[in-house]
Amino acid sequence: MKLQCVVIALCLGVGVMAGKYSREVNEAKPSGSDGQTVDFRIAKLNQVWEKAKRMQLSPVRQAELHSDLKIQEKDEMQWKKMKVEGLDENGEKEAQLRRNFNVILAKYGMDGKRDTRTLESNSLKDHDTKEGDIFDDPRLDKLWNKAKSSGKFSNEELLSLKREFQHHKDKIHEYNILMDTVSRTEEIHKNVISPLEGDAKEHVLHQRHTDLKHKMRDLNQGFERLRKLSHEGFTEDSEFREPRVIELWEAAKRANLSEDELDSLKEELRHFETKVEKHSHYQEQLELSHQKLQHVEALGDKEHIKRNQEKYNTLAEKTREMSYKMKKHMQDLSNKISRQGLEHNEL
């Protein structure tokens, strides 16, 4: 009887240890001597987050990175379930996740490369930088300066227009990062020996080039909207103010949806716009809180520093939470529009 109990205990111990070590590779563990739990359940994402904190990114950039990593974590956990169920046989989803991860690293300057991805345009690249050139792209700067001096926009409308220009600039930058990752993949692809592996990678590369084409089409349409806005100004019947929401609405109108579907989506986008505006407000407050904390730290009053640090930490956490919810909602809306549009095209 004693021997039987010992055997059972050993089996349970081995089972617990095996489960422990298999989970430890990918799930969150206590970090440091204080036993605090880490932010992500996947080890590589925690490594990126710890590196970002050492790099001392601005508070807003940190919040944006945290939400991007949370989205990446959610997608990777979903993919793990797909893999267990035998889905994603051709590895397309896995390749997309790897690409998304590389884009995150490059976007926040964490890919170990000096960022030489300049913003591309149809204009000459060796243009002289002038005072008032704030978008690092001659076409955008020319449009912005023309709109600013046209007298067609109120101060509030200029702020909205500037957000659209900044959003377009960010999209160009992300496109160039994506193009860079595809180029590097193609270099690796050239060295493939196995024909079967070559076929799989050919499929992945084809998908990436398709993604690039779609993104380039979106960029061209986005620039055309900016050009029209800069010349004609905002119309009274403009549906939305926020660039991300406008982008989704324009995509929905191109998706061949019914009037009822568009009306339903318009209402959902109004709610989403409120969320985007709230997120922007939190970003501004976080930046102000960080500036105040730096000022207080310079004065050296420990009690004052502690109070401001607590306020800053609370605001940083809330900003990260808002950023994640906003990006997750945008991802869901984008998928919904694409799915509905595809269903209509198949009918």
UniProtKB/TrEMBL annotation:
UniProt cross-references to SUPFAM superfamilies, sorted A to Z: RAP domain-like (SSF47045)
Residue stretches spanning the membrane: none
GO molecular function terms attached to this record: heparin binding; lipase binding; low-density lipoprotein particle receptor binding; receptor antagonist activity; very-low-density lipoprotein particle receptor binding
Signal sequence segment: 1-18
UniProt GO BP: negative regulation of receptor internalization; negative regulation of very-low-density lipoprotein particle clearance
Pfam families xref list: Alpha-2-MRAP_C (PF06401), Alpha-2-MRAP_N (PF06400)
Cellular-component GO terms for this entry: cis-Golgi network; endoplasmic reticulum-Golgi intermediate compartment; endosome; plasma membrane; rough endoplasmic reticulum lumen
Name the record gives this protein: Low density lipoprotein receptor-related protein associated protein 1
Organism: Seriola lalandi dorsalis
